[in-house]
Amino acid sequence: MAIFSPEKRIWWKQPIHGLELGWIIVVFLWGLFMFFFMIAWHFIGDQNLSTETYRIAPDKFVERVEEFAEEFQAMDENGEPIEEEGVPVVRPAAGGDVYLLARLWEFWPIIELKKGESYRFHLSSADWQHGFSLQPTNINISVHPGYEHVLSLTPTESGVFGIVCNEYCGIGHHTMTGRIRVVE
Ligand code: CUA
Description:
The protein is an alpha+beta fold. It has 2 helices and 12 strands. The protein has helices at 18-44, 58-71; strands spanning 52-55, 83-84, 87-90, 97-103, 106-108, 110-114, 119-125, 130-135, 139-143, 147-153, 159-165, 177-183. The strands form 2 sheets. A 7-stranded mixed beta sheet has the order 2-3-6-12-11-8-9, covered by helices on one side. It has a 5-stranded mixed beta sheet with strand order 1-10-7-4-5, with helices on one face. Strand 2 and strand 3 (87-90) form a beta hairpin.
């Protein structure tokens, strides 16, 4: 911000310096390169997933996730529901639909998938904007209330994968985590 008015009031009509113009061109071309590389990276880097996106009322999505969790609740050998820190572990049918809810401040429920099987993965938020970041892979999806992202997912490695929220969503943002287990 200038304290004094510019000496030449019509500064925007001054001829542009060659070096400055050179930099503007470089930056513009770099911007274009970065833009198209985003698209290229989808193909050559297996990144920037293509998701189908549908409108859905947040309450409706919550209902679906709850129905899904009830239907596929994992049970132990005594027929008791398996939970981790009060969050149900859900074992969806191989090849079926999987629902994951982001809300203040958790990803719900914990999902157990089978390695090598393909799933249709549905993701949405019950309240605010959250970020789905799957660790340690580099999969990032913005999660918005009112929009349901659907992606095809085939786990290729077994183990426990952490989910962290990477969009600031309030006081509990740093505690907003979840889990996907992949079993052989
Ligand atoms: Cu949810 Cu940050």
